[in-house]
Amino acid sequence: MGDMEKQYMIHIKEFIQTFCFAKNVEIIMDESNLKTNVKTHKENNCKVINIYSCYAIWLCMNEIYPSWFDISIHPAQFETEIDAYECLLKYLNEYHEKKYEKITKQILDKLSALTINEFIDIYSLVILAALVSDDKQKHINNILS
After folding, report:
1. What stretches of the chain show up as alpha helix (H) in DSSP?
2. The organism sits in which domain of life (predicted)?
3. How many CB atoms lie within 10 A of CB 139?
4. Domain residues for 32?
5. CB-facing half-sphere around the CA of 128: CA atoms within 13 A
6. Dist CA 64 CA 90 (whole Å)
7. pLDDT along the chain (145 residues), means of 10
8. Domain count across the chain
């Protein structure tokens, strides 16, 4: 991996740390779960960055809503990282009750060539989901008590 790809990996790990801080949880990235036979990176390393990013998003959303973001939509279940990303983004859009559908649609349109701006948008939606999930859980607990 080149310097730029290493920087992206550092940002992905920082994203996981931010999420863990927001949710007060610990998440361990087990990279052995990712298929390597189909998801080998191209010369520009876009695929390897996308698959790690996709996996990070799945890990975080699995922590928030494990019944939706279960093993059936784990990035390793898909033939390409684009398919995995598309599925996760659609689930994330549903989780947010389509409030950020415009952002999600823009990301989906650029899925084959994500830039740092799209990564930031995706991570923002996940961090927002982490913060919203606490409020949703408190609301459910209030209703049940």
Report:
1. 3-23, 46-64, 81-95, 101-109, 116-144
2. Eukaryota
3. 10
4. 3-144
5. 13
6. 16
7. 68 73 62 47 51 84 88 88 91 93 93 82 88 68 65
8. 1
